[in-house]
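In this section we walk through a basic example: taking a raw amino acid sequence and producing a predicted 3D structure, encoded as discrete structure tokens. The instruction is simple. Fold the sequence below.
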Amino acid sequence: MKVLQIFELAPEAVFDKLGGSPQGISAEEAQKRLAEYGPNAIKEVSKTPLIYKFLAQFYHLMAIFLWIAGILAIVSDQAPIGYAIFGVIIINALFSFWQEFQAEKAVEELKKLLPAKAKVLREGSPKKILAEELVPGDLILLDEGDNISADGRLIEAFELRTNNSTLTGESEPVRKTADAFLDTDISYTEAPNLVFAGTSVAFGSGRALVVKTGMETEFGKIASLTQGVKAELSPLQKDLNKLIRIIAIIASASGLLLYLVARFGVGFENSFILAVGLIVANIPEGLLPSVTLGLAIGVKRLVEKNALVKKLSSVETLGSTDVICTDKTGTLTQNEMTVRELFTCEGNVEVRGVGYEPKGDFLKDGVPLDVSSNQLVKLLLKAGSLCNDAKVVPPEAENAKWKILGDPTEAALLVSAAKAGFDYNQEFIELPRIHELPFDSVRKMMSSIHDERGQVVSYIKGAPKELLDKCTKILTSKGVRELTAKDREKIVAQNDDYARAALRVLAMAYRELPNELTDYQVETVEKDLTFIGLQAMMDPPRPAVTKAIEECHTAGIKIIMITGDYGLTAESIARNIGMVKGKDVQIITGIELDKFSDKELKKALLAEEIIFARVAPEHKMRVVSTLKDMDKVVAVTGDGVNDAPALKRADIGVAMGITGTDVAKEASEMVITDDNFASIVHAIEEGRIVYDNLRKFISYIFCHLTPEILPFILWIILAPKYGFPLAISIMVVLAIDLGTDTFPALALATEAAEPGIMQRPPRSRKEPILNAKLLSRAYLFIGMVEAVCVMAVVLYTLFAGGYRFSASALSFFQFDAAGMATRNVLLFKQIQTIAFVGLAMCQIGSMFANRTMRVSVFKIGIFSNKWVNMALLFELIFIPALVLAPFVSNFFGLTTPTLSQFLFVLPFPFIVFFAEEIRKFFVRKYRPVPGV
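The resulting token sequence is shown next.
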């Protein structure tokens, strides 16, 4: 049943429209409608079984590449290498699965918010039925504290207020009415006579006729949007897949070329083995575990900055973020309504202190004010405290913050009074309430009538203009006098000033009632009032948010506020915190957004300063999707159920840990544990550090590929004519890739931020993590320096052992099918040993050189990273142990090198390090733009 303008109908017409009655439908009719419309439940899409998620860790692109390499190694009679590669895949899969083991429970959490049972009127009798059995036309009964099970049109409403935060993200209770509402310039969810599934009754009671159930409800639409979001690869995953494809092409092409060339000299079997060796040498086997562990280190560091990351690749995505779509309440603001200013006929009074904790001073003209000696301010605060139904709860053992029960606006009035020493509990004992005229949306005020030591006094609070119309007198320091036209102008002007500053304003008045009056009606109480003053309040910004916004702007990150609140309020907060500064800020409402084409929305999003206000979940989702279509890396913050679709659609969804619902947390990739926007900025900075460090240790890993590949190339060229030996075996390659290089690579993942990391713009979504410049630096510069060093010590060892480039050299070494020497075996082992030691020593220099990408390592302190220092110590112990321990050296086909060979390789770390320092010097001199 499609109902678009149900809120325009009068209550009696609603029954005709939906086929219901004031007594409710019959049980028989309910069964018919249940068969027609289906159960009132959130439908769940099928999920990927957990075992499939685990198995997926074994067949992504890098894993497939490693499986092939392992199989080739086993086929070529290099089983230990193959098994070692398989071990890398398995260990990495287990670790990744454990880190990313986060069940997708967003829809399940949505279902939990819907009550299991609902109260209905059927055939004139109230009944409790399963919420799933509700059907359109049912008459549901609503009382304070009830969760609402379906979308409905109110038929009766008695001081009814609902908490719609699940739909709007705004925690302020919304007042409801059963009257027809003819203003069509509002969205469906803003209609004051409609209630919605997933919301709750904050105050009052009512009856509503069900108009939509299940997936047709506004709540169901959120579930549908959340389910419809497909998981996407992160920028890092896309980069790594692209990189792996490049490596696969290079490795396969070079291996095939070696095979084709070598088979003419050494035969099919030998050439196949050597081709496999070259392929394995081209594959950075240590890349996968290093990236995984590097990201895990980033996750650990983020925890220290109040950010919990559920998905490893999200750490790097943070660093790529160039747009943050943030809500307002609870993220940019504290979600604690606070009175900031008071106004009486004597002027303004500033109220200090933030939040619900009753601590703060009062200042008049910058000078502390003693409220006890100022009768005007004292009565203004007293009126706000007495005309109030909220409560403020002090911190408890399990709750470290002050809490409120009731309306946040009323709680703010209690707190402002408590700052002046008022104890509202004691006041209600001394000045008992006789009667209350509750607030309603027509007269826009509330009256609380008290016995004040024998005198009946009514205290009234309400909307300033409406309450002012009821006032005839004004309270001054000299007593009560007539309210003049000039007084009214002054009060209205002050109210307008507050409104322009996005402050919520309540006016206070009082009236002494005749003691003989017993019938307290609006007409007899709310007239001839004495105006006391105004209390202006706001949800204050978080303390660190202004600095965080400035850091975002400096870092080239655009911030877009998307809120369910009103545009002027949103703009005022945005200006307050420095999010917008220009005069031409663009404010787009949800209704206006519905009229935008995709092209118009893209054009609007190009504006430097833009705010979306009064939006629904589908609007937020559309904005995020459009930004992604514009190749932006989008982070979205949220805490409510309404945020779940956008959180899942974003490149990185960021949920609030304290105020966030379970639904929001499940739909997001990261949870901010202190609900502070500043923590998001810190996380982005950490993401940039992780991105830089990924490049550093990936560069480090790639540096050794050139000296590992060059021996194969030289062997192809020189072996047929001079019997030149293969200086590096596949086992040595594996000892470096998975042995000596692992700890240094991880140490580089712990590097601190380089200077100016948050002064540069975000990297483009299209920019790969390893660009041509970085690859050429790793392969052709540092890698070539290492290759020259390694081949130098190999030639030194060969010549010292009697080898010469001559025709007789063909018989100097004789090789078996695996390429191992059968003559001059000791010299052959020394060559492979010193090549391994030389390369490992070069990588020590490379480790220090890769600590920075541009600035000199001396600028950050050459020994400033304790983990790099520990990696150095590890290398200096592990390298000798590998060649001196007989069992280990025999396994890898190595032997003990001579003292002269050891002395030859000692300068290698310094050669590599200073060569890169010289390169960086010229880069800084001739290419001042930041880059590699």
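Looking at the output, two observations stand out. Residues 102-111 have pLDDT under 50 and may be disordered. The chain has 35 helices and 28 strands. In the next section we compare this with other chains.
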